[in-house]
Amino acid sequence: MTRTPGQRLLVALPYLWLLVLFLAPFLIVLKISLSDLAVARPPYMPQFDLSEGWAGVAAFVDALDVENYVFLAEDSLYINAYLSSLRIAAISTVITLLIGYAIAYALARAPRRWRPTLVMLVILPFWTSFLIRVYAWIGILKTEGLLNQALLSVGLIGEPLTILNTNTAVYIGIVYSYLPFMVLPVYATLEKMDESLLEAAADLGSSRLAAFFLVTLPLSLPGVLAGCFLVFIPAIGEFVIPDLLGGSETLMIGKTLWVEFFNNRDWPLASAVAIVLLALLIVPIVLFQRQQMRQEIGT
Amino acid sequence: MTAPFAPWADPAASPLIEIRDVTKRFGAFEAVKSLSLNIYEREFFAILGPSGCGKTTLMRMLAGFETPSEGAILLDGEDLSPVPPAKRPVNMMFQSYALFPHLTVEKNIAFGLKREGTPSGEIAERVTDIMRLVQLTDFARRKPDQLSGGQRQRVALARALVKRPRLLLLDEPLGALDKKLRQETQFELMNIQETLGTTFVIVTHDQEEAMTVSSRIAVMRAGELAQVATPADLYERPESRFVADFIGEVTILEGRVSGADAVGATLSAMEGAPDLRVATDTLPPLGETAWLALRPETVTITPDRPEGADNALPGTVLDIAYLGNLSTYHVALADGRVVKAQESNRFGANRRGITWEDAVWVSWEEDAGVLLQA
Amino acid sequence: MRRFSWFNATSLALGLAFLYLPILILVVYSFNESRLVTVWGGFSTKWYGELFRNEQFLEAAWVTLRVALVSATVATVLGTLAAYALVRAGRFRGRTLFSGMIYAPLVMPEVITGLSLLLLFISIGMDRGIVTITLAHITFGMCFASVVVSSRLVAFDASLEEAACDLGCTPVQAFFSVTLPVITPAIVAAWLLAFTLSLDDLVIASFTSGPGATTLPMKIYSQVRLGVTPEINALSTLLIGVVALGVVAASLAGKRMEGRADP
What we know:
Distance between the termini of chain A: 25 Å
Shape of chain C: globular
Distance between the termini of chain C: 31 Å
Largest sheet of chain C: none
Helix content of chain A: over 70%
Largest sheet of chain A: 2 strands, antiparallel
Low-confidence stretches of chain C: none
Number of helices of chain A: 13
CATH topology of chain C: MetI-like fold
Mean pLDDT of chain A: 85
Oligomer: heterotrimer
Helix content of chain C: over 70%
Mean pLDDT of chain C: 85
Structural class of chain A: mainly alpha
Order of helices and strands of chain A: HEEHHHHHHHHHHHH
Structural class of chain C: mainly alpha
CATH class of chain A: Mainly Alpha
CATH superfamily of chain A: MetI-like
Number of domains of chain C: 1
Strand content of chain C: under 5%
Low-confidence stretches of chain A: none
Number of strands of chain C: 0
CATH topology of chain A: MetI-like fold
Radius of gyration of chain A: 25 Å
């Protein structure tokens, strides 16, 4: 296929933009993660000095080392933060899936003329500020908050529960914020499922429950997978939710990176934290992308 | 020689399925109106009708996906209504085939047997047998989206048949196939039905298909049965204009009954022309409106008035549809009404050089047509 | 067979309650007379008044709005081009990398995107401020925009463009006279998405901003860390109201446009 210069420009413009502002920054992060902390501006060394020519490049490469990564591996704080992020993200994803599936299933079964409105209702909160939605939970979950007031007044509990500043609050926050990302892909697969498949299953002797597990669930797996990726991947690196709702026990890598960067001003170490986090995410991201591609080909 | 298969004519035979006064309403709309029908063991029964006539609703009530608003459906004399679809000895082949896209051909077919809790050895055996019957053995491991339309149709058939239902329902089973494949498959279906002896009920809007495959046809119209009869009876002795028109090509001439005796009636159909003579065994009331239904192949077309024909009318050739073996002539009568006449191209009018705009005569014997009072 | 059972109705009702109750509570308490946000002290709009007298908030809002308007617009243009390249340009060298760079930011943790952009700006010696925030927002906004637009483009029959060319349009004319009108609803949706994401962003803005450029989320965040305050509730209510109105208006306009496009 031959292309006109105009068509080339069409591809080149967004392509270049992403190369400069998405790919290049990662290479810089990688480089800095191999540098050492310095009391300077910017606070790391070595600095790349082109004026010295090839010798400068050689000296620059020589000065890079994996010291930061060794430090990460040796300090249990970081390893724990990674593991704890994975665990919190995984648990939240499972809870989001259970709640999200029930909602998506109900949406797909709602009368056809209500569906657009109901779907809109599920998406609408996503358009309002994420920060504000997380903030809203502080007032609800804190010790003298509305949830405790409500539970106390109906006599379900004798004394207020401590929910805010615990992992439980983080789970609630993640589930709440990411719910639409689970509901929508699952709903999309359930909605386009041919109704006669369920009738066929019943006709061939399945109870409703059996038909759900043998037909509906397997057929909605692409949506479930997409939903899980869309929740799990960003949840690992989440910063706002653990920072506002979590407590001292809540260890999440996004928060660790933030603290390392803004409070300790250790840019090389923060970069190393980011690179390791990225390495952790590469596998699910690639899996997610392949699944998306397969979906695109499928449709 | 054995007697022809006709359990419906035998008063001692008890039906497999008895539909008793069944009505089905959706809100205010009556899809099926107090309909009664018997279907016998080993029948290949067709329910035929235009879309929206209630045929699919009737079938879905047989399968158990809809419950009758009134009336009952009995299988072997027992009421089916409390039995959910999953427990009925009735299986359905869906119009969309409804093959499970995530399962292979083999697993699709085994699905129902597994639900029954059939031992795995027997499942394997029965699945293998049925796949051989429908010639799917080579495709056992494929997924539905890797099959052609005809193959999918056979998987759907095998999946329903492998459960050995008392009654197999087929919802427009060949609708998705192209014409040539459809004709081949019709004969395949008949062979399979004969081999297994299962009772088949097929729902279709294609009258040719219904005529080809079935032992009896129920023609439905607006939720009611218009006529239930064998294909030949339906074609030769329709009971209403609707049935006559729905099955095959027909010319319908309206007129007034001007005379009637033991062997026939006369119909005044056109001013200035002699009354038409029709053989009939039911005496129509004098003076009432009635209709003469004429199949095109019973009408002869000639350039001159034929000698000794029971009925003959002059007209002009309006149109000629060449069908290869046959040609159909549309002849406009003096008052503008059109009579269709069909002639074989080997011997017929074509040889005599009849063409557009020619003045001709159409003629038929008194027993050629049927006199209809509805 | 597809029945809307009690179980379905209940899960939907509970789900919607879960989604909306926190927001509702927030809105209700923004009209609370008492400074104690969990104790109802009577109806009052005084916090809205205080909000409008708080110059820091107003200034932050102005910064955020400017960033969002510019970044959403540029992101939509670039995103539409990217979508067009992905869907229509066929195979070209580096297509896999390109589609990877489009999809990756959608799931990339914000802390990583923020950190990497900041380090880029520093290493090329760019002063941080409103410009760098805008550049960062364009980058992730265009990825979301391109996903939205390309989903519409995929559904759009390429033979329409071919028909236009066949009838004498140049490719550019075909794009403007056939493709653009069809994908306009998607472009509007993409702009709205990029705009909201920009309004909403805390993490990336915190990394890429410099002294003197504080966005509204950054301002809110610094307040929220200190605890729940009625002013924040009032501000949140305003933002929620604006967004809700915007989304409803956009979807109504979208419906009308759809209706015109395929009656």
